[in-house]
Amino acid sequence: MKFAMIGAGAMGLRYGILLQEAGNDVTFIDTWQPHIDKIREQGGVYVSRDHEDRHLTEIKLETPETYDDDPDMYIFFTKQMQLADFLKRCAHFFKPNQYAFTCMNGMGHIEKLQQYFADDKIIAGTALIATVLNGPGDVDFMGKRGAGKMNMANLTEKPDEMTHRLFDELDKAQMHPTLTTNFKGTLMTKVIFNSVINTLCTLFEIQMGEFGNFDKAYDLGRQLIDEAYDICERAGITLVSTRDEEMAALDHNTRIDMPLHYPSMYQDMIHDRPTEVDYINGYIAELGREHHYEAHTHIFLTNLVHLSEYHRANE
Ligand code: NAD
C-alpha cells in the first residue's frame, strides 16, 4: 500500500518505518524544521530499540508544501493541538477517495478529520506501543521487536476492503492489531486508561512501574476510572473493558509490561511543550458536563497539569 505519514515524530516514525520494512511505500510529512534539517543532513533517521542497535534508516521526507503524490491512506500522528494546523497545510493534496487513519491519544481529533474526510474514509484506533523521540532525527522504539498492540475501528463501524488491507499491513509490521466495531467505546477506553497513567506519571515525573508498585495505586486509579465510567454510562458509550478489566490492565501495563517507561505526556512536559491533558482528563470532564456530571477528580488533575506547565514556562 502507499502511505503518507502526517507527523513524523515518535509514533509517525514507528508506524511508518515498520510499514516501510513490511514492504509498503511510505512518505513522511513533517513541519518541525530542526527535525527536517537533521534528517536531511544525516541522510535518514537514527532508530534504536530499547536504547540499543542505533542505526540509520533512510526515509522519504516532505513538508506539507512540497508533498505531491496520491497515497491510498494518510496516517496522522501529530499531537492533538497540532492537528488543525497540519490539516490546513495538507488540505491541498487530499482527494475524496483517500483514507485517514490515526491512533492518536485523547479525543478531539475525529471531529477535525471529519472536516476533510468523509465518515466512511475515517479509521481510528489506539496504540499501546511506547516510542520516544530523543531529539531531531533520532527515535527509540521501546520494547523488543513485535512489542505492543493496538485496536482499530471504522467511524462507520462497518469495515470495508481498505480496512482489511490496512489491518493486514499492520499485522505484517507486527503491530498486533485488533479490529473492533465499537468506534467510540474503543477510543474512550484508551482515553480513560491514559487519564490515569499518563497524567499521574507526568505530574510526579515517575516511570509507570513506580506508579504501579505504589500501594495506593489501585485507589488512585479506581477513583478516576469510576468517574470516567459513570460519565460514559450517562453518555451511552459502551466501553470495551469493564471497570475491573480496566483496573487489571492498568496494573499489568504499569508493573509488568512497561515499568521503565515514561508516558508520552511526560515527554512533552520535560521538553516544556504543552501536554494533551485537555484532550484526555479535560475531555472526560467536558463529556461529564454535557451529561450533568461534575468530574471533580478529572477537573482537579487537568488543572494540576496546567499549573505544572505554567510553572515550568515561568521558571
Ligand atoms: P511527537 O511529539 O513525537 O511528534 C508529533 C509532532 O511534533 C511531529 O510533527 C514532530 O516532528 C513534532 N515535534 C516533536 N518534538 C517537537 C519539539 N520539541 N518541538 C516542535 N515540534 C516537535 O508525538 P508522538 O509521541 O508521535 O505522538 C503522536 C500522537 O500519538 C499523540 O496523540 C500521542 O499522545 C500518541 N501516542 C504516543 C505514544 C508514544 O509512546 N509516543 C504512544 C501512543 C500514542
Give the secondary structure arrangement, pairings included.
Blueprint lengths: L1 E5 L3 H12 L3 E5 L3 H10 L2 E5 L2 E6 L2 E3 L10 E4 L6 H8 L8 E4 L6 H6 L7 E7 L2 E5 L2 E4 L7 E6 L6 H12 L4 E4 L2 H22 L3 H5 L4 H19 L7 H15 L6 H7 L10 H10 L5 H18 L2
Parallel strand pairs: 1-2, 1-6, 2-5, 3-10, 6-7, 7-8, 11-12
Antiparallel strand pairs: 3-4, 8-11, 9-10
The protein binds nicotinamide-adenine-dinucleotide.
Question: What does this protein structure show overall?
Answer:
The termini are far apart. It contains 12 helices and 12 strands. The longest helix is centred in the middle third of the chain and has 22 residues, at 183-204. Strand 9 (131-135) and strand 10 form a beta hairpin. Helix 6 (183-204) runs antiparallel to helix 8, helix 6 crosses helix 9 (243-257) and helix 8 (217-235) crosses helix 9. With 315 residues, the chain is of the alpha/beta class. The relative contact order is 0.12. The model has no long low-confidence stretch (mean pLDDT 96). It has helices at 10-21, 33-42, 83-90, 109-114, 161-172, 183-204, 208-212, 217-235, 243-257, 264-270, 281-290, 296-313; strands spanning 2-6, 25-29, 45-49, 52-57, 60-62, 73-76, 99-102, 122-128, 131-135, 138-141, 149-154, 177-180. The strands form 2 sheets. An 8-stranded mixed sheet has the order 5-2-1-6-7-8-11-12. Helix content is 46%, strand content 18%. The structure holds nicotinamide-adenine-dinucleotide. Nicotinamide-adenine-dinucleotide binds next to helix 1 and strand 9.
